[in-house]
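dude i think i finally got it to work??
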Amino acid sequence: MSENFHKVLKGGYLDCVYSRLSLAVTERSETELRKLIERGHDVEGEPGSGYSPLSLAIGWTAGIQILLEAGADPVQATLDAIGRGHGASVEMLLPKCPMFPIEPHSSHLPERSILSYALWVRSSPTIIRLIAKEIAKDLQQLKILALQNLSHGQSHSFGLMLKDGNISLLQGKENQVMTALSERGIEIPAKLLPCPLPASTMTRG
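look at this
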């Protein structure tokens, strides 16, 4: 652990908010980060600290990889990376992040998804393309799962039996397809479940 890291801990203004693991991330210390994870430190950091270790790792490829491999939740960090316009971090996080929207409880409420958030913060075309590509991959995976497990009639009703099998036909029907799969007792990969964005994600303070 570096001398600077000791000074931060002794300063009394960060150690009460950030975990030691978060501080290792801010110092970009791969060795310290791995050591703390091996010792069982929580990869989500301290509750109420404001930023998770994964969000603090935005811009640091090695740190993001280490934390994702250790099971860190990617959702908030993905939003933070999108908000900061850090395309390289977004590209690393998206394959671990659920992409499908949560169905609004009311038609008056906006859809909540990674894509809708990126559009809301006016992300760059590069980031929008990365998100669209990831959604297409997840739709293809959902289509394969549906074709393998749903009846011919159900697959046809979702537009999966058309000659060209355009996966875009599944957009807007993700939750219906997952409900049909669940009713058949099919386990749905976490990556394909609706993205758990909080209702406050797209609200102005």
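The mean pLDDT is 83.
im so relieved honestly
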